[in-house]
Amino acid sequence: MKIAFKKLTECTIQDTVTAWNRGFEGYFVPLEMTAELFFNRMVNEGLSLKHSLVAFDEEEPVAIVLNGFRIVDGKKIAWNGGTGIAAEYRGKGVSTRLMEEAIKVYSEAGVVVATLEAIKENEKAIRLYEKYGYEITDSLVYLGGTLDLSNTSLTSESIRPEQFPTFSFYKENVPWQCQWQSVRSGEAQIYFNSNQNPIGYSLYKRTWDQNGYLEKIFLFQLELFDEVNEETIKEIFTSISGEQHKPVNFMTINASLSNPVIPLLLDLGFEKKTEQVQMVKKLNQ
Fold first, then answer.
1. How distant, in Å, are the alpha carbons of 53, 68, 171 from that of 81?
2. Do 3-111 and 143-276 have matching folds?
3. Domain ranges of the chain
């Protein structure tokens, strides 16, 4: 076995997608991609072709790690958007080589904080990341559920996700896929109390079926500043959906378990679909 690394800019599309699909074969959730899906994800989530790596054994693509960089709270952060190793190469030291190469990329780029998420049950991966200095900082959850919505008197203002940095209350330091930069094609709202003071905001995407009916809403952020209650949640979900007369299917994406909205959604009948841990490593200190 002779492992060498190439940047994605040096790889063919076929080798890159092969490395991804082989690397995530048999994973906890299905992650197989076509070339179109793969490169759409690279663009939509701000991942870097020149800072992401494919590992080759001779001419054979056997592993991959995707990386992206952003400035968050004034610091340059990196995100590991996926580390996959072909089944027959697991347990043979390839993961160690891949992590070392990725951290080298981060250091050379001046990254201060490296972040990633791992499926809670993926204990092997979590141990590997801990070996390289990552620490678990939060538990994240995907919740799915349907709410019967009703009329709302809540005052809201629709904005573009790109406008969030102009608001002092916007929370930058959230999981990568929940940051506004990863949800440019989504929508956002700010909510106000009777005194016209902001009480919270949301960042979400709506999808429609082939008949033009609202199918599902993916909720990337829902931050409330005042006391949270079920009635406020229902009003916000009604405002988000634009629907008032039929149930709507919602899914939270990487929501922090510490967010007070989460227990309320569980009380409203939402179910836990997937749980992840957020992990952070400090560099160049």
1. 11, 7, 21
2. yes
3. 3-111, 143-276
What is the Cβ-side half-sphere exposure of residue 106, based on CA atoms within 13 angstroms? 30
pLDDT number for residue 5 = 96
Question: Cβ-count burial of 127 within 10 angstroms (0-12 exposed, 13-18 middle, 19+ buried)?
Answer: exposed
Q: Could you give the CA distance from residue 223 to residue 86 in angstroms, rounded to a whole number?
A: 39
Q: What percent of the chain has pLDDT over 70?
A: 98
Residue-level pLDDT at 244: 59
The answer to whether 255 touches 242, Cβ cutoff 8 Å, is no
- Quick one: which H or E segment has residue 278? strand 271-282
Rounded Cα distance between 271 and 104, Å, is 40
Give kind and range of the element (H or E) at residue 96: helix 94-108
Instruction: Calculate helix-pair angle for 123-131, 94-108, nearest 10 degrees.
Output: 50
- What is the separation of C-alpha 37 from the centre of its chain, rounded to a whole number of angstroms? 16
Pairing between strand 113-119 and 214-224? unpaired
- Give the distance, in angstroms, between the CA of residue 246 and the centroid of all CA atoms in the same chain: 29
User: pLDDT digit string (tens) for 163-208?
Assistant: 999 999 999 999 999 999 999 999 999 999 888 999 999 999 999 9
| Residue found under tokens 């027959």 | 88
What is the tens place of the pLDDT at every residue in 14-72? 999 999 999 999 877 778 999 999 999 999 999 999 999 999 999 999 999 999 999 99
Query: What CATH number belongs to 143-276?
Result: 3.40.630
Can you tell me the distance from the alpha carbon of 270 to that of 230, in angstroms, rounded to the nearest whole number?
Answer: 12
Sequence-distant (≥ 6) Cβ neighbours of residue 272 within 8 angstroms = 141, 142, 143, 266
Fold of 3-111: Aminopeptidase (3.40.630)
Residues 6+ apart with CB under 8 A from 280: 113, 114, 115, 134, 135, 137
